[in-house]
Every structure is written in structure tokens, then in C-alpha cells.
Write a structure and sequence with these properties.
The chain has 372 residues and is mostly helical. The chain is built from 14 helices and 3 strands. It is globular, with a radius of gyration of 23 Å.
Amino acid sequence: MKKLLFIPFLFLFIYACNSNDEGTVVNTGDSFDRSVMLKNWADNIIIPSFQNYQNKVNAFKNDVDAFTASPNQLKLEAVRASWLQAYRAYQSVGMFGVGKATEIHFVSATNTYPTDTVGIEANISSGTYDFSAISQFSKQGFPALDFMLYGLAADDNALLDFYIGNVNASKYKDYLNNLVTRLKFNADLIVSHWNTTYRNEFVASSQNTPSSSTNLMVNTFVNYYERQIRAGKVGIPSGVFSTGTLFPTKTEAYYKNNISKLLLQDAVNASSDFFNGKHFAHNASGSSLKSYIEHLNVSKNGVSLVTIINDQFTACNSKIAVLNDSFSVELNANKLKMLETYDQLQKNVQYFKVDMMAALNISVDYADADGD
């Protein structure tokens, strides 16, 4: 009799372990080969993405060197063009906050905005600053360069004068050089680390433990999508976290002012490619989070979680496509479109952070302040 009573309770226990109150069902028995996925991530996505970023930063530095040697309008345009190419390349690597990127606070040192223009001017005036200090994150990176290349003056003639006729022209040129030198230093450091020791360490760590490569990479990917893409690029400027108060000056690339949409598209597409295991700059794909979820046969309300997430990426891009190229302009003209975009981005935060991570048996290792 005891055995007969035990069977229903055992069934209920198994069912509870394979579903949640939001309707996500997981086929247990994780025999997925994470080492194959880690190799695909390292060799076909992360390292090539960082090498591309490094190449774009090197080209940017060469243009800055030429400009600061003899500033003129033509060279200014070349610097601006290579700055944009490097900034776009960054959108494909910001999510890879593991290894050396974690140690050097790569994201914070590269793309903290809004940039501190008062602090930048103080740095230029004093000539004394240490970009490795946390207090300097808002005075460096692509946002600081945005200010130096577009925000110093209302027109190009006046801006060029900061580098030619200004009493502190040499200091402005030095600061511009030092900003891009710091970008290059960090890019070189990360690429070297991956190519020498970290790649093998990363691939070898194929367990499912809090410190394993899969767990760390999934956490940094979801964290980046949530905080840097959803919140930083859209939510904060749109007033989502400030009871509706808009912050047009907190949009990405505020001084260039017509590429915030482009940078968001690049970042969302890079996130989608990573989820699906798409090789960087190639059409081929390999083992990925998509593969992992499919292997576990994860569904939500009867629909594959992979389908739900990819459909949501499509929905995000549809909302982004109708936005103004400048988010500061869009916020002043029609903030509702920005809020709708945020809502679509937020849905994938839930699918990643609640459904996917639970299915992969990965705990969230970072705290948030705004809920899921």
C-alpha cells in the first residue's frame, strides 16, 4: 500500500522539476556536449569578433595619428569615419565580458555614457589622469571620443580650432591620442590573452558549475543584453527607470546624434547571432545556446523556446526599424516608439533570464534593480 501511495507523489515531484508556473517545460537529462559549443564560441565568434574590433581600432589610431600631426578638415572626416567603424565593431564584442575583459572592466572603460564633458575638460587642462581608475570611465572610450570629434563646438571650423589655434591645442591633441591609445591597449590585451592562454582554458572548462565557461558566458551575455542594450541604449533615455522623465542627452553617441539607432541594431543583431551560434562575418553556424535549448527540448506553452526567442529578436528589429536615426530626436518627437522598443527588448530578458537559464540549470550571478 505504501508503494502505491508513493507513485503519484513521485510523479508530481518529477513534473515539478520539469516545469514552472510560466509554462516552461524541460526535457531533463543534460547530455549536451558543452565543449563543442565553447569551441564554436571561442574560435568562430569571440576571437574573430575581437580581432575585427582590434583591426578597426588600429585603423582608427592611424587616422588619429595623422590628424593630430597636422589637423585639417579632410583628416577630421577620416578620423570620424574610422571612429564609427570601430564603434560599430565594439557592438559585437561588448557582450563577451569574460577573462581579461572582466579584469580590465572593458565595457565600462569603452562605452560609459553620457560622457563627463566637465571631467574631460579638467583632464585636458591638467594633463594628469589615469584611465585605469574607475573614476575615469566616464571620461574615456567611444563616448568621450564622440565629444572630442563632434561636441567641442557647433561647427567644424570652430571644432578644428581646438586642435589648431586654441591655447591648449597640444593638450587637446594629446587627449585625443591618449583616448585612442587606451582603446588600442585594451583591445591588444584582450586579443593576446585569448590567443595565448585563455582560449584553451575557456574551452576546457566545460562543466556546469558557477565558475565554468558556459555559466560565466551565459551570465555575461544576459547581463549585457539586459543592462547595456535594453536599459542603456533605450530604457534609461526613455525614462523607464525615472518615472517618465526623459533623458535625450543620455542617448548613445549623443554628439554625433544620428547613429544611436544603427548602434542598437548592431548590438541586437550581434546578440541574435551569438544566441544562434552564427560565425562572425560568415553565414555558417555551429553549436550554440540555440543548440543547447533544442537538445533539452525546452518549450513554453507548447512552443519551442528557441522559436520564441528568435521571433522576439524579429519583433525587436521591427520596432527598431521605425525609429529615428537619432534617439534624442525620437524621444522629443515620439517617446512612445522608444517605449514600445523597450518593451520588446524586455521580453527577451525574461526569456533569457527566467526560461533559458532555468532550463540550462544556470543561476543568475548578478543583481538587478528593476526586476525581470
